[in-house]
Amino acid sequence: MAQHTADIVIAGAGLSAALAALRLGAAGRVLLIDQRPDPLAGHTWSFHDGDLDPAQRDWLGPAVRRRWNGQDVRFPGYARRLRSGYASLDADSLGAAISGLPGIGRLTARVASVDATGVVLADGRRIEARIAIDARGFVPHPAIEVRFQKFLGQEVRLTAPHGLTRPVIMDATVPQQDGYRFFYLLPFDDMRLLIEETYYSDRAVLSPERQRGAIADYAAAQGWRIAQVDREETGVLPIALRFDADAFWKAQPPVPAIGLRAMRFHPLTGYSLPQAVRSADLIARHWQQGPQTLALALRRLSLHEARAQGFYRLLSRMLFEAADPDRRRHVMQRFYRLPEPLIERLYAGTSTLADKARILTGRPPVPVGRALRCLPETFKVKPA
Ligand SMILES: Cc1cc2nc3c(=O)[nH]c(=O)nc-3n(C[C@H](O)[C@H](O)[C@H](O)COP(=O)(O)OP(=O)(O)OC[C@H]3O[C@@H](n4cnc5c(N)ncnc54)[C@H](O)[C@@H]3O)c2cc1C
């Protein structure tokens, strides 16, 4: 029997769904359905100040755990402080922000299918609403070719202050293996920090035991003694090399979709929080006009972004296909010597024509012939 318990039912209660619920606030009753009882657990999501506009930073504010002025990058023989602000949300801060909202309901169940006005659960029950949204995360598709940013991180408490005052978004001074390898550091307070070992890799597999050892070795090399590991997180994020958005959307049902389910992520950095924030704004603007209007608005935004992101997919191809794995660090180091406003616009996905020309000109850090072969975004097998 159908149950009608909410204005909006969202299948999947990860980042994009939680942000949509936060953005709607008291404006509508939202039911979040996830197969996992604690879908936000084990995540830290970060963004650069320039990724969002002031109004977006404002409504996201209650979910932010920590904000910093500036961030560092480190390469062999070259370190740089970037002025750009950085902020992080985690399961506790985002969970607390939405649990205080009056209209939010939760259900732990596996969703079998989603249509415009409801979901069918794996046990056959149907839940109806004015609008249903699909936010069930990434599913591989022949219209997108990806590689991986993969990591294992530990939030640790040290025996003495670590001395960091801002995040180190890349410490690439470490030996290179399995692609581009670096450590990512978020200093939450004087004694506590997240240490993540990260790879831009051709392979999606993690090696948890080895990575835990690498984190311990890295901490020891900084002179830090770990008193306690409070939690661990892992991730394998898609990095897009080729995406035929028209073929992808032609095959999708006319249901509002957000997050990685809608392939909404930065092709080069793998970040998806800014896209999820923009989707949340769009939902708040259009949900009362019904599912068709909302689905169309979200689809238009996705297609527009996918077309505008072609340059970043080209850079992903340069990194993964033109550069040998052990030369990827060289490509990144060259990029981080460029002017800071250009770097900020690349993070935000708003690079200008002049930025693109600047990134591609000069002595190429990859073999010219291989770089030229990367230029066209042609699939080896054309998606249907
Ligand atoms: C550890 C980690 C750190 C990250 N850090 C950043 C960052 O710093 N900045 C950034 O922008 N991005 C970051 N990302 C990338 C990106 O933000 C995440 O991938 C993000 O969670 C994607 O949001 P989403 O809502 O699309 O999918 P998810 O958050 O993956 O949520 C999808 C949810 O759907 C549920 N689900 C799937 N199928 C079903 C089903 N059939 N029935 C019911 N439920 C279902 C899943 O259980 C899951 O909870 C990180 C990712 C990870 C894993």
From TrEMBL:
Which family is this sequence assigned to? Belongs to the lycopene cyclase family.
What organism does this protein naturally occur in?
Paracoccus sediminis
Q: Which Pfam families match?
A: Lycopene_cycl
Lineage of this protein's species? Answer: Bacteria, Pseudomonadati, Pseudomonadota, Alphaproteobacteria, Rhodobacterales
Gene Ontology molecular function: lycopene beta cyclase activity; oxidoreductase activity, acting on paired donors, with incorporation or reduction of molecular oxygen
Q: What name does the UniProt record give this protein?
A: Lycopene beta-cyclase
Q: Where would one find coiled-coil regions in this protein?
A: none
Q: Which SUPFAM superfamilies match?
A: FAD/NAD(P)-binding domain
InterPro entries per UniProt: CrtY, FAD/NAD-bd_sf, Lycopene_cyclase_b/e
Q: Name one GO biological process term.
A: carotenoid biosynthetic process
Tell me the superkingdom of the source: Bacteria
